[in-house]
UniProtKB/TrEMBL annotation:
Residues 256-385 form the Thiolase C-terminal domain. SUPFAM superfamilies: Thiolase-like. It holds the Pfam family Thiolase_C_1. It comes from the Bacteria. PANTHER family: ACETYL-COA C-ACETYLTRANSFERASE (PTHR42870), NON-SPECIFIC LIPID-TRANSFER PROTEIN-LIKE 2 (PTHR42870:SF1). GO terms for molecular function: acetyl-CoA C-acyltransferase activity. This is Thiolase C-terminal domain-containing protein.
Length: 394
């Protein structure tokens, strides 16, 4: 097989309670998610022979990544043939891409992947947990932002977004549609953090966090965990859910890998990874039924719409104008669970979970009509980006 990802499927999903005040330890939340995922696949713990996570274990009280593989492996008493955490990868989907490689190398058959966040509780302890720590826990490039007092991700991304606004001419009321549609979808998701619909007036009345990003353009820190099971296709055929393959991935790094010296601040790293993904499949953007696009900030979703070819570069404003195209009943429903903007920040793993929910017909009130079979997913941020297509085979 030319591309190894086509021999890998998602066979099970699980998610803990997502909240702003868990009242449970990060490991407890992780166990809730992974045990649900294993059961959802119809597997036993003894079937799991691989583990992967992003970015690994941060013992820094930030809540960014409070659980790593050693603690979880021990809690589950798993005997593994392979495992990996991966801080330095092409975005948050690096855990998935590494697992694909391990499965293709016959190092394992069923890989447990998890992403745990505990930032809502951590930020009650110290506001510093919401900021970069120059010279400390954070990636070293953030030191370059310190002289300009850009200590938070919102300030950093606002710089890139400002460049995008300048080059594209997108209007604020068009940008707002990402947040409005996300909240509209979240209102139908009982697990979402924020479920009260918002209006355009609500969007404009909200505080500016870092111009041009407003409050509703920013994702929501949470406590929670999401888990997925990746399986070799021949093994996946015996699991519980419909066969749902990873059709193509994008993880290209054909550009300068720097947070401060980006080749194109307005688009960041997404165009290269999208080009790689579409080059590994016969599918096209017109075949996609639902798009679960990274929305750490609304800007990221806008970038994904363009980079993945759903609309031309710098024309996302016209594409999302009015919101009808990207609504649940539109031609390209996006972030159907509310995304990170309303359902809560899971660093795109909430979107992976939701893509399976949609392809397996479990969406209930938010289920996309027409029996969706192809989902597109993305991550984004500075030089980090990844994307993949998920296809249900019946």
């Amino acid at each position: 097989m030319k591309y190894p990802e086509k021999n890998v499927a998602i066979t099970g999903i699980g998610q803990s309670r997502i909240s702003r005040d868990a009242g449970f330890s990060p490991l407890s939340l992780t166990l809730d998610a992974v045990l649900e995922a294993i059961a959802d696949a119809g597997l036993e713990r003894s079937d799991i022979d691989g583990m992967s996570c992003w970015p690994g274990d941060y013992q820094d009280a930030s809540g960014m990544a409070p659980v790593g593989i050693p603690a979880l492996q021990d809690a589950l008493r798993l005997k593994l043939g392979w495992y990996s955490n991966c801080r330095e990868t092409a975005g948050q989907f690096g855990a998935i891409f590494n697992a694909i490689a391990a499965i293709s190398a016959n190092l394992c058959r069923h890989v447990l992947i998890f992403r745990t966040m505990y930032q809502a509780t951590a930020r009650k302890t110290s506001f510093a947990n919401a900021s970069f720590q120059p010279g400390g826990r954070a990636f070293w490039p953030y030191d370059w932002f310190a002289p300009y007092h850009a200590y938070a991700a919102a300030s950093q991304q606002a710089l890139y977004f400002s460049r995008y606004v300048h080059e594209s001419g997108i209007k604020p009321e068009q940008v707002a549609q990402i947040a409005l549609i996300s909240r509209q979808n979240a209102s139908l998701n009982p697990a979402a953090i924020y479920r009260t619909p918002i209006t355009l007036d609500d969007y404009f009345d909200a505080p500016i966090i870092s111009s041009p990003l407003k409050l509703f353009d920013c994702d929501v820190p949470i406590d929670g965990s999401t888990a997925i099971i990746l399986s070799r296709v021949d093994c996946a055929r015996d699991t519980r859910n419909p066969l749902t393959r990873i059709e193509a991935i994008g993880s290209s790094m054909q550009y300068r890998n720097s947070w401060t010296q980006l080749d194109d601040p307005a688009t960041q790293a997404l165009p290269g990874v999208a080009e790689m993904m579409w080059g590994r499949t016969d599918l096209s953007p017109a075949d996609v039924d639902v798009a679960e696009l990274y929305d750490g900030f609304s800007f990221h979703t806008i970038n994904s719409l363009e980079a993945l070819g759903f609309c031309p570069k710098f024309e996302a404003g016209a594409f999302i104008d009015g919101g009808s195209r990207i609504a649940l009943d539109g031609e390209l429903p996006i972030n159907t669970n509310g995304g990170a903007l309303s359902a809560g920040r899971m660093h795109a793993y909430g979107q992976v979970h939701e893509a399976c929910v949609q392809l397996w017909g479990r969406g209930e009130r938010r289920q996309v009509a027409g029996d969706p079979r192809v989902a597109a997913l993305s991550t984004a941020g500075g030089p980090l980006a990844g994307c993949f297509l998920l296809v249900r085979d019946d």
